[in-house]
Structures are given as structure tokens and as C-alpha cells.
Specification:
Blueprint: H1 15-63, E1 74-78, E2 84-88, E3 95-103, E4 109-111, E5 115-116, E6 120-121, E7 124-130, E8 133-139, E9 142-143, H2 144-154, E10 159-164, E11 170-177, E12 186-190, H3 191-198, E13 202-203, E14 209-210, E15 219-220, E16 224-225, E17 228-231, E18 236-240, H4 243-249, E19 255-264, E20 284-287, E21 290-293, E22 319-323, E23 328-330, E24 341-346, H5 347-351, E25 356-362, E26 368-378, E27 387-388, E28 391-393, E29 398-402, E30 405-409, E31 413-418, E32 421-425, E33 433-439, H6 441-466, H7 470-475, H8 481-489, H9 498-512, E34 531-532, E35 554-555, H10 557-566, H11 568-575, H12 589-601, H13 606-670
Antiparallel strand pairs: 1-33, 2-32, 3-29, 3-33, 4-11, 4-28, 5-11, 6-9, 7-8, 7-12, 10-11, 13-27, 14-26, 15-18, 16-17, 17-26, 18-25, 19-24, 19-26, 20-21, 22-23, 22-25, 29-30, 31-32, 34-35
Helix pairs in contact: 1-6, 1-12, 1-13, 9-12
Length: 671
């Protein structure tokens, strides 16, 4: 059927096939141009890949000596990270500090009594105050869930609420401050106060303040008058705390308050000299009218000397606290004053959390009487009307001790204590925590490993492109199957390209060369810190290994770790050193690598020139293809026209022959 000729539909002589066969020959130059463009684009991609790897190596090199180099990074290591941690910036100096976390900062968190799930919150203006900030909420009434959502919308990151299913079938309302610090207490105002008291979140606290009774029963050697205790010179007394006062005294921020006065007595007067004794009259004897008088009595009285004055004692350390475990601690010195002076002390700073059993008064003075009154133990932070009934935590400051110095801050993150270091208190502990600020050697190690890794990938790329040897790809065991196939496609593509060979030789000379260091005269090469082309340990196989001759670097981690621990400043100088004092590194491995790679990848560099040349060739080939397409189109049109004319002439000749046959037939019939 394919040989059937249909006029106007199929060519008699199959001219389409003839024209297509002729055009295939004519298209050969165009196909060659297209293949050339594909080859050029592949080569451009290879150059761009080399450029990316060179750029990565350059960036790694610059990282190791630039202003942001990892040698200046600092890290803070804590001996107990569950108690205290820290972060350090580059501005921190190497040092060691000892901390004791006495108290961590906390915020107020109040929980209500269990509530029915169907509880409703009345409409009202609910106010909350956290420190100096006030939060007001106009609630239209609704469920507890609606109330919680309204608080969280208005909380502004300082107030939060939640519903906790404490018991099955009921839930408790949690309202908490998100701001720590003793100065940031959560206070309920307006309808919020009434709601908190109704839900069992707040209660009255009449026991918030306790006055130890000053009575004869509570004072040993009691000299009590109208609530005042008087302790004459040379005497002592003891005020025993009640059980309630003892329990309260062991709490945090509990204070002891009292009023004292003194009365100084004058020194006793000097006694007068004693009177002389009165002697009796000497007497006489009369006999026969003759009287004989006795001589007066003679008494030798020594010279009178006044007695020495008594030794004066002035001792103002008259007050001390005795604790329930039998230990004691002195209170500050008493001040002389005829009028009563008030004194106030925070018990936790003196007692360390122990219960106070008594206030001891010892008056060793010889000329001073002591008086004390209004002894009170109280919580200054407690609201007597609205004390939390179910406080999960209370607002308090962080208290830490650094080298024996006590520091108080409202937050657990303390950034103004050590320059460049933020200390973070995690939990209180009596055990001291050592905090060491030191160089981040892991960051330096990672930077060196990154440099070596990218150097090896670049060398592998250069080896594949410049050499036609399958073993090069087989040696790269870290490549995936797809990566190996891609490598085989580019194997030996630039085997005659001297630019890449020269570049490879240049970077190999840099990483194996020697560079001066001022900190360690004996350290001048990468191999001395465990990085080199052959850093196998002693005892390892020393057989021939062609992969070790291709310029790849190896790392001996043990040697590198030891060098980083002992010679970090010298290693920094090995990668970048300022030799002329202009604050710009001008010597070192990284400096040399950066200078070598810069000319290849900078704007207008060698890679740009190579890809630019390829782009020019691609443009030329594309213009050639356009010309060839135009020529092919004209050629195909010419062939179609010529074959069309041929078929037309043949058709006319065929018609003429038919006419002649018909004419001849008619002539024969006429005869």
C-alpha cells in the first residue's frame, strides 16, 4: 500500500524522504556546533565547580587569621552544669572563678483550689501589677478557659495563665508572673483580688508577723518593765523565741527588728583619806603631893594613798543569736544612745536558714546599762491581707557568691558580673562550682578540620580534571555512587590545562612549607601539629601507597589535640602572623593560601577569565547555529521547490502523453 500514488497527497517519487536524507547531510555542521556548545557548557560548569571549591578554601583560610578567627573565641566550662553555667564572648579573658549558688531568681506563681469545670468568671475589671508594670483586663464574663485566653492575650509576655487538671473532673487556675526578681511581685487588683480570694488563691495572713513575748517567763534573769528589758552593767539576759517565731525565723528574707538604748554611768568618786585615830590622855600619878605626868603616846601613821580606780570595760558587742543546733552568731555592735534606736537585720544572711532559738544579751561593760524593746520577727514582703494560699514559687532574687562576695540580681542570667561572661544560675547548692573561661579549642579544631577537608576536596577535583586515571576516583572512598559517576564524566577533561596543575603545585607548596612563629621557635610546619601528607603513627605500614603521593592532607587527632592544648598561641601564629606590627597578618599558611586563591576567584580573576572565554565561544557557536539554521531553511525550501518543479514537469509530460494517446486512438477510429 505504501507504493500507491495519490495525486496531491503523496509524492510519486517519495521526494520527502529524498529531501530529508539530503538535509541530514547538510545538518552535520550544525549538530557539531550543538555538541561543541554542550562540551563548552560542561567545561564551564567544571571551571565554576573548581571556582566554588577554591572560594570555599579561601574562606576557610581567611577564617583562621581574620578578626573573627576562632582563636579569639572563648568558652566557659562549669564543674557542675546543673548548678551554674555561663556563656563567654570574645571579649572575655581567660580566668577561673569559684561560685556558690545560694538562691535562684524566681517569679510569683499562684494556684487556686480545685474548681468545677463549669465554673464561670464574672464580668469585671481585672487588674494585675508586676513590679512597676500594670496590666488591666476588662473581661465580659465567661468560662475559665475564656478568662485564661484573655489574660494571655493581655499578658504582654509578663503575665500568663493556665488551667491545670489537678484532679479528675476538676481543674485549678494558675496565674504566674513571667518576670523574676523580688521587686517584681505579682499583685492582684480590683476584681482580680476578689476572684483570687474566692478561688482560694489568696488568704489573710495574721501570722505573717510574730512578736516574741518579752515577759518574765521568756527572759532569763528577767528585768522586765513595760515590755522593755534592762541589762545592767556586768549582767546578761536571754530572750527565748516562741515556737512560732522559731519556725518563721528559718524562712527566706525574714527580718529581726528591735530598739536599743544605753545609759552611761559616771565613774565612782575617789574615797577621802581615813581619819587619824584618837589617842587617850597619857595620865599621871600623885603621891605625897608630888604628881608625875606620863609622856604622850607616840603613833607612827603611814602616808595615805588613794586606791587605784576600777578597770573600765567598754564592749558594744552585746547581742548575739543562738540557734536551735547550739551554734551562735554575733549581731553588729550596739550604738550608744539615750533614746531608742531601731535596728533591722535579715536573719537568713546571719543564720544561713537555721532556726533562731534565742537572742542573747551579754553586758560586759562596767559603766553602761543596756535596754532593749520591741523585738519583732516578721516577713517584710508578706501582704497580711493577701498572702498566697497555694504558691508554687515566690518572687525572689538570685543570690550567688563569687570568691566570697555575695551578689544579688533579679534574674538568673547575670551579664554584668564578669566582662564578656554571662553567668546563668540553675539551682541552689552548697557545693562551690568552678567556672573556667578559656579558648574554644574545639572551634579551632573544627576550623582546621574544615580547612583540611575542603583542601582535599579541591585537590581531588584537580586530580580528576587534569589526569586520566581511574585509580584516582577509586581512591576517593568517601564518594557516593552518583558522585563517582560524575567524576568519571570529567576525568581528564583538562589534562592539558597547565593553569590548574600550577595552582595545585602552588597550594601543595604552601601547606608543606615552613612559617615563623614567635611563641614557639620549634613550631613552624603543619606536620608538627599532626596535619600533613603522611602523618601515620609509628608502627603503621610503610608500604607503597600511591594515594599518599597525590597531595592529600591527613590529620592525627591525638597530636592535634595535644598541640591545641599546649601551643594554641603558636598555632594561631602558624596560620597568621603580623610580622611588621601594622595589625594585619602578613605571614602564615592561611595568609599564603588566601593570597594564592584570591587571584583565581576574585572579580576578573583567572576563573572568571576562563568562563568568560568559554561564554565567548558559546556565543560564537550559537551565532553560527543561527546562520546554519537560516542556510538549512533556505536549502530545504530550494530542494522542495526543485523537486516540486520536477514532479510538476513530469505530471505535464504525463498529461501530454495521455492526450497524444487519445488523439491517436481517435484517428485510428476515424479510419
Amino acid at each position: 500500500m505504501s507504493d500507491i500514488y495519490v495525486p496531491g497527497v503523496k509524492s510519486r517519487f517519495n521526494t520527502e524522504t529524498l529531501i530529508e536524507d539530503l538535509m541530514k547531510v547538510e545538518r552535520i555542521p550544525r549538530e557539531r556546533a550543538e555538541k561543541q556548545i554542550e562540551t563548552l557548557r560542561s567545561e564551564k560548569g567544571y571551571w565554576q565547580e573548581v571556582g566554588r571549591r577554591i572560594t570555599t578554601l579561601r574562606e576557610n583560610s581567611r577564617t583562621l587569621y581574620s578578626f573573627q578567627n576562632p582563636f579569639n573565641e572563648r568558652i566557659a566550662r562549669s564543674s557542675d552544669e546543673s548548678t551554674l553555667t555561663a556563656t563567654a564572648t570574645r571579649q572575655a579573658v581567660e580566668q577561673e572563678r569559684v561560685f556558690t549558688v545560694k538562691q535562684i531568681a524566681a517569679a510569683d506563681r499562684f494556684l487556686s483550689d480545685p474548681l468545677e469545670n463549669s465554673v464561670k468568671i464574672e464580668e469585671g475589671n481585672y487588674g494585675f501589677r508586676i513590679g512597676e508594670d500594670e496590666i488591666s483586663l476588662n473581661f465580659r464574663g465567661g468560662s475559665a478557659k475564656d478568662f485564661v485566653e484573655a489574660i494571655n492575650r493581655r499578658g504582654r509576655g509578663k503575665l500568663h495563665a493556665d488551667l491545670i487538671s489537678v484532679k479528675q473532673g476538676s481543674q485549678s487556675l494558675l496565674i504566674e508572673s513571667l518576670v523574676t526578681g523580688a521587686a517584681n511581685k505579682l499583685v492582684f487588683q480590683g476584681a482580680a483580688e476578689n476572684l483570687a480570694r474566692t478561688l482560694g488563691m489568696l488568704r489573710s495572713a495574721p501570722e505573717a508577723q510574730i512578736d516574741p513575748a518579752i515577759t518574765a517567763a521568756g527572759v532569763s534573769r528577767a528585768q522586765v518593765s513595760s515590755g522593755d528589758i534592762s541589762v545592767p552593767a556586768g549582767e546578761k539576759n536571754s530572750l527565748q523565741f516562741s515556737q512560732a517565731a522559731r519556725l518563721l525565723s528559718a524562712g527566706k528574707n525574714i527580718q529581726l527588728s528591735f530598739e536599743t538604748s544605753t545609759r552611761i554611768k559616771r565613774d565612782p568618786p575617789v574615797p577621802p583619806p581615813p581619819e587619824s585615830p584618837v589617842l587617850p590622855a597619857p595620865g599621871s600619878v600623885t603621891y605625897g603631893g608630888i604628881t608625875v605626868e606620863n609622856d604622850p603616846s607616840a603613833l607612827d601613821i603611814p602616808e595615805w594613798k588613794p586606791p587605784p580606780p576600777p578597770l573600765r570595760v567598754d564592749d558594744m558587742a552585746m547581742l548575739s543569736l543562738r540557734f536551735s543546733d547550739g551554734s551562735a552568731a554575733n549581731l553588729p555592735l550596739v550604738q550608744d544612745s539615750e533614746g531608742f534606736l531601731q535596728s533591722r537585720y535579715t536573719l537568713s544572711g546571719i543564720s544561713g536558714g537555721k532556726e533562731v532559738a534565742s537572742l542573747e544579751i551579754v553586758n560586759k561593760n562596767t559603766n553602761r546599762d543596756f535596754f532593749i524593746r520591741n523585738v519583732t520577727v516578721f516577713d517584710p514582703d508578706e501582704n497580711r491581707r493577701n498572702a498566697p494560699a497555694n504558691a508554687l514559687s515566690r518572687a525572689q532574687d538570685a543570690v550567688i557568691e563569687m570568691e566570697g562576695i555575695e551578689i544579688t540580681r533579679p534574674s538568673n542570667e547575670i551579664g554584668d558580673l564578669i566582662p564578656g561572661v554571662t553567668v546563668i544560675a540553675k539551682s541552689p547548692s552548697d557545693t562551690p562550682v568552678r567556672l573556667n573561661v578559656e579558648p574554644d579549642r574545639e572551634a579551632v579544631k573544627d576550623a582546621i578540620i574544615s580547612l583540611v577537608g575542603n583542601y582535599n576536596r579541591l585537590v581531588a577535583e584537580l586530580n580528576v580534571l587534569t589526569r586520566n586515571d581511574e585509580k584516582i576516583i577509586e581512591e576517593l572512598s568517601y564518594l557516593s555512587g552518583d558522585e563517582q559517576r560524575e567524576m568519571r564524566e570529567r576525568l581528564g577533561v583538562f589534562s592539558g590545562e597547565t593553569t590548574l596543575s600550577q595552582f595545585k603545585n602552588g597550594i601543595q607548596r604552601i601547606v608543606t612549607g615552613a612559617y615563623p612563629t614567635l611563641m614557639e621557635r620549634d613550631l613552624s610546619m603543619l606536620a608538627q601539629i599532626g596535619v600533613g601528607t603522611d602523618v601515620r603513627r609509628a608502627g603503621a605500614s610503610t608500604g607503597y601507597d600511591p594515594s599518599r603521593l597525590r597531595g592529600y592532607l591527613e590529620i592525627d587527632e591525638k597530636v592535634l589535640d595535644a598541640a591545641l592544648a599546649a601551643k594554641l598561641p603558636a598555632i594561631q601564629q602558624l596560620f597568621g602572623l603580623d610580622t611588621d606590627g601594622d595589625l594585619i597578618a602578613d605571614s602564615g599558611i592561611s595568609v599564603a593560601l588566601e593570597a594564592m586563591t584570591k587571584s583565581y576567584v576574585e572579580t576578573g580573576g583567572i576563573i572568571t577569565l576562563k568562563t568568560g572565554t568559554i561564554d565567548t565561544k558559546i556565543d560564537q557557536e550559537q551565532r553560527r547555529i543561527v546562520t546554519l539554521d537560516r542556510q538549512l531553511e533556505a536549502k530545504e525550501a530550494s530542494l522542495k521547490r526543485q523537486y516540486g518543479q520536477m514532479e510538476g514537469a513530469y505530471s505535464r509530460m504525463e498529461k501530454l502523453g495521455t492526450s497524444l494517446d487519445q488523439f491517436s486512438q481517435r484517428a485510428n477510429n476515424n479510419r
